[in-house]
Amino acid sequence: MRIGELAARAGTTTRTLRYYESRGLLPARRGDNGYRTYDEEDLKLLRQIRTLQDFGFDLEETRPFVECLRAGHPEGDSCPASLVVYRRKLAELDTLIEQLTSVRAQVAAQLTRAEAAVPGGPEPKCELGGHG
Amino acid sequence: MRIGELAARAGTTTRTLRYYESRGLLPARRGDNGYRTYDEEDLKLLRQIRTLQDFGFDLEETRPFVECLRAGHPEGDSCPASLVVYRRKLAELDTLIEQLTSVRAQVAAQLTRAEAAVPGGPEPKCELGGHG
DNA sequence: GTAAGCCTTGACGCGGACGTCAAGGCAAGA
DNA sequence: TCTTGCCTTGACGTCCGCGTCAAGGCTTAC
Question: Which nucleotides of D are covered by protein (CB under 7 A)?
Answer without folding.
Answer: 6-9, 16-20, 26-27
